[in-house]
Automatic annotation (TrEMBL):
Entry-linked InterPro entries: Ribonucl_H, RNaseH-like_sf, RNaseH_sf
Sample GO molecular function, one term: 3'-5' exonuclease activity
Stored SUPFAM superfamilies: Ribonuclease H-like
Keyword Nucleotide-binding applies: no
PANTHER family on file: DNA POLYMERASE III SUBUNIT EPSILON, PROTEIN NEN2
Residue ranges constituting the Exonuclease domain according to the UniProt record: 9-189
Protein name as annotated: DNA polymerase III subunit epsilon
Amino acid sequence: MTVSWADGPVVALDLETTSTDPRRDRLVTASVVTITPGPPGTRPEVATRTWLADPGVEIPADATAIHGISTERARRDGRPAAEVVAEVAAELSRVWTPTTPLCAFNAAFDLTMLDAELRRHHGRGLPLGGPVVDPWCVDRHVDPHRRAKRTLGAVCEHYRVRLDDAHTSTGDALAAARLAWRLAKVYPDEVGLVDPSVLHDRQAVWFREGELAYADGLERRATRTSGATADRLRARAGEVRSCARSWPVLPDPRGADEERRAQ
């Protein structure tokens, strides 16, 4: 009998940040959740590590409204970002292995953000410790025609997965792990019974296909408008295309020189 990877140990990651550009913005909170199944009939063991960082920049009010962390709180209670980033990466290197996949919703954002922060503070990138399972990427592939939002909350609602403490790194990390488990059970042939390394490679293809389709849509919208709006749409389409082949850690489409100027 084939056993699903979802019935073994998994790790989940979520970051809350200053905004939505993973190469420019900064980490505020991070959680790494390790879920280890127990004997039949028992609950799994859940171990959580959470960090609060002082990102070294102002946290915009709209970001605070989402995750609840203000600049003042981060400066008062947070630790230096360089220390936090190093510890998160060290914890991932300990628990994320070729046989223990990492679950993250829209993994390209979290892993690219962590990679950028490691480069910013320590001059090194993020090594991939093992396969990634991204419920956002999987859901977009297995149910491409569903006309609904694909936020974490919306996808959890669709699959009837519990989301506690939304927009906290711990709550969102746990929800990502629950979603990964549910998708493995709902789609066993495409997800649950696939070797995690193979599933990782397939998600890279699914991500690329989805992003290229998204870029095509942006370009079609650009043809229906003009001026600065059309230019922005075409520029965004170009950025999407340039990143489409690099899942789960995305390159900086604007180049290293601009990245250094932004630091």
